[in-house]
Specification:
It is a single chain. By secondary structure, the chain is α/β, with parallel strands linked by helices. The protein has 4 domains: 121-180 and 353-425 and 444-492, Rossmann fold; 208-343, Dimethylsulfoxide Reductase, domain 2 (3-Layer(aba) Sandwich); 524-652, Barwin-like endoglucanases (Beta Barrel), CATH 2.40.40; 666-673 and 687-915, Alpha-Beta Plaits (2-Layer Sandwich), CATH 3.30.70. It has an 8-stranded mixed β-sheet. A 4-stranded parallel β-sheet has the order 11-10-9-12. It is globular, with a radius of gyration of 27 Å.
């Protein structure tokens, strides 16, 4: 068996995307993701599935499972209706989610139903309809490998924390001593592990509890930004912030960064520095705090920041970020030790005694069989490794993955993998807590297998996934009480008391530092994961492509991030196309002028430019991996830029500018928003004798993560419109997160403000509708009656908040399928206005449940989709007629104010001002 003869770029050549192809892909993704499909009897798949349902009542049930990011598990609850997974929520019992979600978790249902999922066996890129051919090939290769003790076999995976997968890999290596295991993690940071070894003699990672932190220093770190531990870290920071507000002593967040981040946007003190200056700052702070290895180092800002850390003492925490040098990571650990900071450290759950991808390529001549499991190194490996060339040289190769991606097309065989929501498995959280993964829906791809099943088939007959996972935990727990523990772990979504032991390590006596980083010639390229596409694995999910980035509002593409001063010096306007050259590699991309970007530093987001990304056409965004090299994976000097004279193709999300009162109020502790004059209106007031629903959003804890936006989209069957329509401002998101920038372009102040429908008590939209399609109900909700709407858009024109969306083209039905993902939310036709309803269907469902149980509705019974997703609990919702409700207490704070309150629309959605010290 031989790999494809055509060079990879030709085999993967894709035309530039056009509106029709993108909308077809996006529409099909949404239609299938929101299609309930053909129901089957519950008894066919089991009811309950494998554990009792949790949470919801009625026909929809919720089951606990776990999803991974970079091999790290985050617990979720999956809402299942008639055997179909329809919505993801966070599991409050799991430390990796704490009941919240991020954009990656919310989009998992879309990935499950993606029509571009791999569904057939392939050989040399061609569909193979007879599975017996692969079975015969596997038997032949097993016999050959057994005869030579596995010599020549290489297994390549992504990061693995799964105890079952590790057990099976160990079994294969034990049976075939000549085989080797290699791990490819595109976003792994070798400098972090080396820095920990310098400091402690072991590759430990910090796992701080930010809820007890009084001063946090982030050296190029983004703990509030996307990542496997984001939900827990963001929750901890929000709790520390809440405790500080109550005590009148806010915790300090100090940030030094080169590229704007979510953490930097919430900083009390922000320093915009290139990486070499961040290292100099770290050395200076360490010297101020008495770290001997940094003695004599200075920096103008070091004394001030060191004083803040010293004042916090054991309640301080210093974190170094991905892409920083070895010295910065080592210094962060040394500063924590010097302060006596109570920052626990533990082993990385994905750390393994495995080789690297670079080592695999180096020994390519000895490789006869290559098995690539759920990884895509042809796309996301550094370009100088030439993994495509490796696959061409290896005589026998098999790729197992969920999509026919770049590696699938280059490998000899391709085998579809099951989605995590339809397969058995297990994983560890960032703190080592174990959780079991159970299928919550029947397999949608008949030919697909799981990684566990494929590994078991290497040395013998393929075993069932459930049996493999049970075997792992039977060995861990023993026979006594196994069934009870198994069932309890499935029901809870977490294995109790399984967190890894953590402690505060001691700094080595012989702690030394590498020489200081010299300031290179600029511009310098730095690489960073895309906040929505991550390392590129989510590029096929249209929800995330269309979601505007938090910093820059880009959708359907990415861009080169440049400082305003650098752009002016180069004569580059925003959107201009530039040619980037690094060594002998060239890349063209548009420019995004980014306030808060360090001068001399150009940031290249990873994950775009996929040439084979499932249903999303190739060519969307730039592929920064083409400039990445093994020796300099995160920062590379020697970059040259040249304006091509062309225009870029990155689409900006719609920008909404609201004139009037300040968008985001900033107060000092103890200060209150000045009250507005008594409201006046020509329309009579209405007294609500029952419930009156309202919302308050705390801007002091909102981090702008966009989880609420995707949660709203998933909950309400909101369609995707594609890049051309999104560029015209026609995206259908019912909730947007506005970025409000003030201050200078070099050191901006950034705030995020979620803006749903305000549900105004004196709604300007209602009085102008000629057909009475927008109305007020008896509980204060501003609602749309879709059959009445004739699309005049007068309501949208009269809305000062611009929160109404016009369905220009019936986007949800463009693929020809009827989206009925959430049957409680109607599908809107073309030509009507749609908007946030405060999740009216959830309100009705909670009321019905309370009535059936013969009790009154309780505060907290109703949780909107956006509120449920929020990792920092910034969104409060409930009955404002109940003075003891959470939302009433929030609105009673002195920080509460109405957006554009001077217009006297009396919005039911209000905001709590941000506090500054």
């Amino acid at each position: 068996m031989t790999p494809p003869e055509a060079p990879l770029p030709e085999a993967l050549a894709a035309p530039d995307p056009d509106r029709r192809s993108v909308l077809r892909a996006a529409g099909a993704s949404l239609a299938l993701a929101t299609a309930a499909g053909c129901d089957w009897a519950p008894a066919e798949f089991g009811s309950p599935l494998y554990a009792p349902a949790r949470g919801l009542g009625g026909p929809a049930q919720s089951y606990a499972t776990v999803l991974e990011l970079d091999g790290i598990g985050r617990g979720v609850l999956v809402r299942v209706l008639n055997g179909h997974a329809i919505k993801i929520e966070g599991n409050p019992r799991h430390p990796g989610s704490l009941g919240a979600t991020d954009v990656f978790l919310e989009s998992a249902v879309l990935g499950l139903h993606d029509p571009a999922r791999s569904r057939r066996l392939r050989q040399r890129g061609q569909v193979v309809r007879d599975p017996a051919l692969l079975a015969a090939w596997l038997a032949e290769q097993r016999a050959a490998l057994a005869a030579q003790g596995g010599a020549g076999l290489r297994i390549l995976t992504g990061p693995v924390s799964s105890p079952t997968q590790r057990r099976l890999i160990a079994a294969v290596l034990a049976a075939w001593p000549g085989a080797r295991w290699h791990v490819h993690a595109p976003l792994a940071d070798a400098a972090a592990a080396e820095g920990a070894r310098l400091a402690f003699g072991a590759a430990l990672v910090p796992r701080p509890d930010l809820s007890t932190t009084r001063c946090l220093l982030a050296l190029g770190a983004d703990p509030l930004g996307p990542g496997p531990a984001q939900l827990a870290l963001a929750r901890g920071w929000a709790e520390a912030r809440a405790a500080g507000r109550q005590a009148g002593r806010l915790p300090a967040l100090l940030v030094a960064e080169s590229t704007p981040s979510l953490t930097g946007s919430k900083a009390d003190r922000l320093l915009v520095l290139p990486p070499w200056e961040i290292e100099a700052l770290a050395r200076g702070i360490a010297a101020e705090l008495g770290v001997a290895a940094a003695a004599g180092a200075t920096h103008p800002e070091a004394a001030t920041l060191a004083a803040s850390l010293r004042a916090a003492g054991p309640e301080a925490c210093v974190l170094a970020g991905r892409g920083q040098g070895v010295a910065v990571h080592a210094l962060a650990h040394a500063i924590n030790a010097a302060l006596g900071a109570a920052v626990p450290y533990l082993e990385d759950p994905t750390e393994a005694a495995a080789g690297t991808l670079a080592e695999l390529v180096a020994e390519a001549d000895a490789v006869t069989h290559l098995l690539v499991l759920d990884a895509n190194p042809v796309f996301d490996a550094p370009a100088d490794l030439d993994v495509a060339g490796l696959l061409r040289r290896v005589p026998h190769s098999l790729h197992a993955g969920p999509q026919v991606d770049e590696t699938a097309l280059a490998a000899g065989w391709h085998l579809p993998l099951r989605h995590p929501l339809e397969s058995w498995g297990d994983s560890l959280a960032f703190d080592g807590t174990a959780a079991l993964r159970q299928p919550v829906t029947r397999p949608l791809v008949e030919a697909a297998v799981s990684v566990e099943e494929l590994l078991s088939a290497l040395a013998g007959p393929r075993a069932d996934g459930q049996a493999l996972v049970r075997e792992t935990w039977r060995a861990a727990w023993g026979e006594a009480g196994f069934e009870e523990r198994w069932r309890a772990a499935l029901e809870a979504g977490v294995v109790p008391d399984s967190a890894a032991p953590a402690g505060v390590p001691v700094l080595r006596d012989d702690f030394t530092l590498p020489p200081p980083m010299p300031a290179p010639a600029t511009p310098v390229a730095i690489f960073a994961p895309d906040p929505h596409l991550w390392d590129g694995r989510f590029a096929s999910e249209a929800w995330l492509q269309e979601l505007p980035r938090q910093l820059g509002s880009l959708a359907w593409g990415n861009a080169v991030l440049m400082a305003p001063a650098d752009a002016r010096a180069a004569g580059l306007a925003e959107g201009a196309e530039v040619e980037l050259r690094l060594a002998d590699r060239v890349l063209r991309a548009p420019v995004l002028v980014t306030p808060g970007q360090a001068p001399g530093v150009v940031t290249l987001p990873l994950g775009g430019g996929r040439r084979a990304a499932g249903g999303v056409p190739g060519g969307i965004g730039m592929d920064a991996y083409r400039l990445r090299q093994v020796a300099s994976p995160w920062m590379a000097a020697g970059l040259s830029l040249r304006a091509t004279g062309g225009a870029g193709w990155a689409e900006r999300g719609a920008d909404f500018t609201l004139a009037g009162d300040p968008r985001v109020r900033r107060l000092t502790p103890g200060e209150a928003v000045p009250p507005l004059p008594p409201p006046r209106s020509l329309y009579p007031d209405w007294q609500y004798t029952g419930h009156a629903w309202g919302m308050a959003i705390d801007l002091d804890t909102c981090i702008g993560c966009n989880a609420c936006v995707v949660a709203c989209q998933a909950e309400n069957n909101t369609p995707v419109v594609g890049p051309e329509e999104a560029g015209r401002g026609r995206a259908m998101h019912w909730l947007r997160v506005d970025r409000v920038v003030s201050g200078s372009a070099e050191a901006p102040q950034v705030d995020f403000q979620p803006v749903p429908c305000m549900h105004c008590e004196k709604a300007p939209c209602e009085v102008v509708c000629p057909v009475n399609a927008t109305v007020h109900d008896h509980e204060g909700l501003n609602l749309m009656i879709y059959p009445r709407c004739i699309g005049t858009r007068t309501c949208s024109n009269n809305c000062p908040y611009k929160v109404r969306r016009f369905n220009w083209a019936g986007y949800a039905r463009q693929a020809g399928a009827v989206p009925v993902h959430n049957p409680n939310v109607p599908v809107r036709p073309r030509g009507v206005i749609e908007k946030c309803t405060y999740c009216q269907h959830r309100i009705k469902g909670a009321q019905d449940t309370a009535r059936q149980e013969g009790r009154a509705l309780r505060d907290g019974d109703i949780v909107t989709a956006c509120q449920n997703a929020c990792p920092t609990r910034a969104i409060h919702f409930g009955d404002i007629n109940d003075p003891t409700s959470d939302v009433s207490r929030a609105k009673a704070e002195g920080r509460n104010y109405a957006l554009l309150g001077n217009l006297d629309t009396r919005p039911r959605t209000t905001y709590l001002a941000r506090l500054v010290s």
